[in-house]
Structure formats: C-alpha cells, structure tokens
Design a protein that fits this description.
Distance between the termini of chain A: 41 Å
Order of helices and strands of chain A: EEEEEEEEEEE
Distance between the termini of chain B: 37 Å
Number of helices of chain B: 0
Number of strands of chain B: 11
Radius of gyration of chain B: 13 Å
Structural class of chain A: mainly beta
Largest interface: A-B, 22 and 24 residues
Structural class of chain B: mainly beta
Strand content of chain B: over 45%
Largest sheet of chain A: 6 strands, mixed
Helix content of chain A: under 10%
Strand content of chain A: over 45%
Order of helices and strands of chain B: EEEEEEEEEEE
Oligomer: heterodimer
Largest sheet of chain B: 7 strands, mixed
Shape of chain A: globular
Shape of chain B: globular
C-alpha cells in the first residue's frame, strides 16, 4: 500500500531564503508525482507535475525533482517571499489512485 | 486555464437531510474525482469517474453516492447526512490522455457542516 510522507510538517523561514520541501513514497511504481499549494480554507493549486519518466520540472522560482528508485521528491523554492506562505502537498498517482501527503505548512517571515 | 467550479463554498445541513454537491469543469476532462479533507487525515478519495455514467469507489465511499450524467458535471450525494460527514469536500478533474493519469485540477472546495 502506497504511503506518502512529507517532512517537515511545518517550516518557518525569513524572506529571501532558499528552501527545500521533502516528499517520500514507499512504492516506486508510480505514474506521476504532483506538487500542490493550498491556502487556508481554499482548494489545491497545481504547481508542478513530474511524470514517472522525468527527473525534474521547473516553473519560475520552483523546481521539483523526482528519484523513483529512492522514493523521493523535493520541491525547491528559491528566494522565498511572504506570499509563498501556504501548505504544500505532494501527491503520488499509480494504479488508478492518487495518494496525498499530509503537507508541509510553510511560513515566510517578512 | 482549466476551471473547476463547485456549487457552494459553504453549506450547513441538518442530520438526515439529502445533500447534493455539484462540480463542473470546463476543459472536457474525462476523469473527475471527489475527495474529502479532514485535519490529521489529509485528503481521501470518495469516488471517481473516468467517463460519463461510469464511477468507481475510492477509499471511503460509505454514506456517499455519485452521479455523472454529463461529461462536465460530477455530483456527490449524501443520502442521509450525518455529523461525521462534516468536512471540506474537494472536486478535481484530469484528462485521460497519455496513459490516463494526468495533472489534476481542483475546485475551490465546499465546507459542509452537518448539525
């Protein structure tokens, strides 16, 4: 059974810092991995999707990597801003199911 | 841009009522999903549909049913609402090309309270 873990559960950083969020999964037979952002009381906003055949994806200040063999993905946020404060979730899809991690709550201090 | 809309942002219902949550997507996606999100439990899949009139149970289908009569619309039905169904309900959609597991796009969510 696929399990998805995100570490840390919460993170507080000063504005301008580069940071890495981690996601690990137990079953490497996946189709894709997706990173989302969720603001309090809102739905999920898709940030990046990495197909199983890819190693990384980039969008603006965000870079996500995928290492299937070790069951790990990282989301790198460059030059963090207060507007980046949100909960970040990773989700792994395989076998008609998407399993979500519990998320990392990020707070960027001005 | 893909747009997924949900009929209500906030809903308050009484125990035993029949509740309908509506979701509409405008990108001609084949796949549609209903999740619920609870503190400490994360997102859990209730039902999904990969085509009109097709549905599959997710991890927690008990107490729920779904309807997909048109490709763009996926409805979640609580036949007899109970207090343990108080939750945030999230709808999502994705295309089925390239193997069937593509980027999921979410709606804004419906915060349902059952009294």
């Amino acid at each position: 059974k696929q399990e998805v873990t995100q570490i840390p559960a919460a993170l507080s950083v000063p504005e301008g810092e580069n940071l890495v969020l981690n996601c690990s999964f137990t079953d490497s037979a996946i189709y894709n991995l997706q990173w989302f952002r969720q603001d309090p009381g809102k739905g999920l906003t898709s940030l990046l999707l990495i197909q199983s055949s890819q190693r990384e994806q980039t969008s603006g200040r965000l870079n996500a990597s995928l290492d299937k063999s070790s069951g790990r993905s990282t989301l790198y946020i460059a030059a963090s801003q207060p507007g980046d404060s949100a909960t970040y979730l990773c989700a792994v899809t395989g076998g008609f199911k998407t399993i979500f991690g519990a998320g990392t709550r990020l707070f960027v201090k001005a | 841009d893909v747009k997924v809309t949900q009929s209500s942002r906030y809903l308050v219902k009484r125990t035993g009522e029949k509740v309908f949550l509506e979701c509409v997507q405008d990108m001609d996606h084949e796949n549609m999903f209903w999740y619920r999100q609870d503190p400490g439990l994360g997102l859990r899949l209730i039902y999904f549909s990969y085509d009109v009139k097709m549905k599959e149970k997710g991890d927690i289908p008990e107490g729920y049913s779904v309807s997909r009569e048109k490709k763009e619309r996926f409805s979640l039905i609580l036949e007899s609402a109970s207090t343990n169904q108080t939750s945030m309900y999230l709808c999502a959609s994705s295309s089925a090309g390239g193997g069937g597991y593509n980027e999921q796009f979410f709606g804004p969510g419906t915060r349902l309270t059952v009294l």
